[in-house]
TrEMBL record:
SUPFAM superfamilies: Acyl-CoA N-acyltransferases (Nat). It comes from the Bacteria. This is GNAT superfamily N-acetyltransferase. PROSITE patterns: GNAT. Residues 5-151 form the N-acetyltransferase domain. One of its GO terms (molecular function) is acyltransferase activity, transferring groups other than amino-acyl groups. The lineage of its organism: Bacteria, Bacillati, Actinomycetota, Actinomycetes, Propionibacteriales. Keywords: Acyltransferase, Transferase.
Amino acid sequence: MEHIVEERSAGDAELAQLLEAAFAELVGRYGAEGRSQVKDRARYFVVLDEERRAVGCGAVQVFGPETEHPGDGEVKRMYVVPPARGRGYARALLAALEGAARSAGHPALRLSTGELQPEAIALYESCGYVRATPWGKYVDQPAVRCYAKSL
């Protein structure tokens, strides 16, 4: 199927719907701790449209100068609606985020995912992300897996 990945603003209505669906899925898997906000700190968002319908999204937020990884980007809220899964859309979203982060001068991208998301783990590992030492709030969360990829 034909698809387009494009940058969207934080206030985009279709993006908001996708983020709500992503949060709902995370809460379903992890309980209330699955819900966290990313909009205020994200540098950019992308949305994947399949035949003029928004079916996937992702974001990159930037590690601040006071963090363990200043200047790196962090992949957040990768999500594809269930009926559109299995078509390579998550891989296309991730590639778009990597390209945007590379163009912005980030030396690496980092991300976290949970043990209850084996499909995400498989995607990230197949795209060259390697296990990384947990940072920030993930340090004491053994069910969280952190990954990094040099750009």
